Amino acid sequence: MTTESPSLSYNLAMDCSPRWKPTGDSTLRIIPAGPKATIDRSKRDFLRAAIALLAGLNLPTTSLAGGGRHGVGGSGQRVVMVIFGGVRRAETFSPQGLVNIPHLSGDLLSQSLFYRDARNEGVTAHFNAVSSILTGNWQRVDDWGKLAPTTPTLFEQFRKGLGAAQSDTWVVASNKALTSLIGASSAMDYGPAYGANVVFPKQLMIAAVVNALRTGRSRNMADREKVQTELQSMLEAGNYEGLGWSVFDGTERLDPRVRDTITEAIATFARGGGPTSGDELTFLVGREVMRKFSPRLLVVILSDVEAAHFGSYAMHLGGIRTGDRLCYQMWQEIQANPDYRDKTTLVILPEFGRDPDGSSTNGFFNHRGDTESTRNTWMMALGTAVDKPRIIERPIRHVDVCASLAALLGCPPMDTQGVRLSELRV
Amino acid sequence: MTRPVHDELPEKLQQALNKGLLKRLPITFQPLTHQQLREWDVLFPYERQSIVRLLLYLADLNEQQFAELFREVVQLEEKMGVRSWQFSTEEQTILNASQLARSRYYQDWRKAVRKVFDAAEQHGESEKSAGAVGNRLILMILPQVLQLEREKVWEKWQGIGRPVRLDLAMSRETQSAAEALLSAGEGGRLLEVMSHRPNASAADTWVLDAGASLVDCALRQTPSGSSAPTALLLSNERLNKLRQNFSREVNTMRKDLADADAVFDRLRKADVTGWCPPEVASVPVIREFLRSLYLSGNGALIFSNSFVEWSASEAFRRARPSFVMAQFGVRSMPKPFTSVAVFENPDEVNPLPAVDDLPGSALDAQMLALYVWLAASRYDEYLRNTVCLCIAESLSEAYVVAPPEFALWHETEPVTLDRLRTTLIRWLA
Questions:
Q1: What is the largest CA-CA distance in chain A?
Q2: Which of A121, A230, A312, A360 to mutate to test the interface with B (most CBs of B within 10 A)?
Q3: Closest approach of chain A CAs to the CA of B252, in angstroms?
Q4: Tens digit of pLDDT for each residue in B8-57?
Q5: Among B81, B105, B130, residue at a domain's last position
């Protein structure tokens, strides 16, 4: 599963270009024309696109010096992970898909450690997929988040192992298929006492819409100022458990710092004049959390792409473009925020792909098939853990992510099905 | 729960059931089988034939053959521990599906089940071909309002067919291309041709409409006073009331599998007749088709183009029609701050006027038209003698996937609507 493919050569003769070959460490160099291509066409197509993008690469761009503040225990490093919902390679890192991800492919790929094959080998449903990434073990619990993951999450390991505070670990998520149980496991000696803060900003928005409708104030949703009031009043109404939130153990009263954080994000969201999708609000809340709490481990989960379930391909692509932009904005925030700059690794990956066109599960609508299109996606890492930007050819598994991030944070080794990714510099 | 053996069931099947065939089935085969037998009256002819073929094939196996056929399924059920689950053997539930899907043996189980169906299919192959019908036609329309890019519109079809130029000049002045094709011309009307086929059944002809104009046109052609329908007519617009009532119920669902099953159970039992337009209310099999279509998701309750695509896919799977005519349409842009509440009626949630999303609708329709063809091409019946023709009105062009003997396959000159209609009528006749 983890073999490199140093001998692969990619025939670009059709493009009248010289042939390229990745060296043993998977950096790309020009080599003389060689024998016939030995990889399948889809890989070759992708690599054509990737090579074109990497042509203008300035290597390396990351600083070796961490330069960051070291918290209580651990490496002093920070991790921000953006999980993207279900997107196929066809609509992202393929020659035809690059148009949907101008920032990931144009601004970030050239600085990144890019895992070309990142596989979800577990249940390709949202709660199980995300909890598998966060625990390093394939989870097979209730799809709708009624049961916590059965093995410790990265949050618990980080907090228990290193004495990190709850304010140091956050999940900010759009997806309604998740619940607050995503923040901590049911494992013995772990659990909510060591869990992350979990907020679902989009649920706040849905609740505000539904409440405005129920109370005959739906006209307010046409006026940005009044939208802000509606969101704010929903925030102050309590019932955070009903919204699926779990923040500093408060179910009825919100910690004032959290309330201020969300208020700030709502104001930007409602009155900023920008896009108004759920992922937009999720991003703004995540960014405010970074500014106010400066967590060492932040997971942001986007889901606008899931409009695919309703059959709108255009809205699905719109969700990909939004996610692409928000990932870039997150990277910009990391660069601009002194608490994060030069001491943060940003990891971006989809939960899974989607079913292939022509499948009995209705193609891009769903993510139920046992196919490459559904299971095989990609992962990108940027920042301090990246020694040298490059493309990694060997397949990795989603459960490998947790062990790797645990190592970056300086956590004690975790008992996981996944293995640490050696390319990420600890 | 399974109702007593029906009079309507074929005698041989009845006998097999009386001998306890259902009890011998592996536990995971029981929900679908029980459900189909219970719903026998509202199954399409093709579905009835399929279940009869499967069950009679199983009934003819001796003990050893039966055990061998299901050996893998039974072993996997044991490994999965299905008997310890809260697993309904009477009907397919969300809870059932969820438990199966998160088992580590789920994919193996699916493959094992597929093998059983394949074996039954192979056994019934000779029977199927004996009853084979004539040519088939899948006719899709991307209406004028959808602006398409000539260079990209057929890109995703990957060269499986070819574009043919159309001369739509006449239709633009009077009616849409779709309506013109349905109207009378040399050789009669498309829908009439289908009704004159031997053993014609309404389930053999489907008209699917994102709006209402196409179905309205078909309804105008239906002879007044005729008792039996000659085609199944589904208009997303005419189904507004049914859709809204379904959406309302679905919205009451809490995030809980048991609650989802309870809501679905309510919707399965609700009398929907009063919510349906006459052409649906009067045909139980299509009424029940819509009920299960809406319960199976895939956007059919939300977007008109998804409704068209998913209806066509389910029609191919369940009824194997010979003629499907499908017209796509336009959806609105998501309203600000409400895109998340996609289940809600956007006009109720936000008073801002709805704005058509023409580029988005065009992209959706292009993809979903391809999906209609891909859905059909999963079945052997559509791999031979089938013409798929997708008309892009705004480009005066159609994409044609057809066998070489189809009259327009080699056409290089623009084809008038009259000629197109005549060619299609001849193909179906």
A1: 71
A2: A312
A3: 12
A4: 788 999 999 999 999 999 999 999 999 999 999 999 999 999 999 999 99
A5: B130
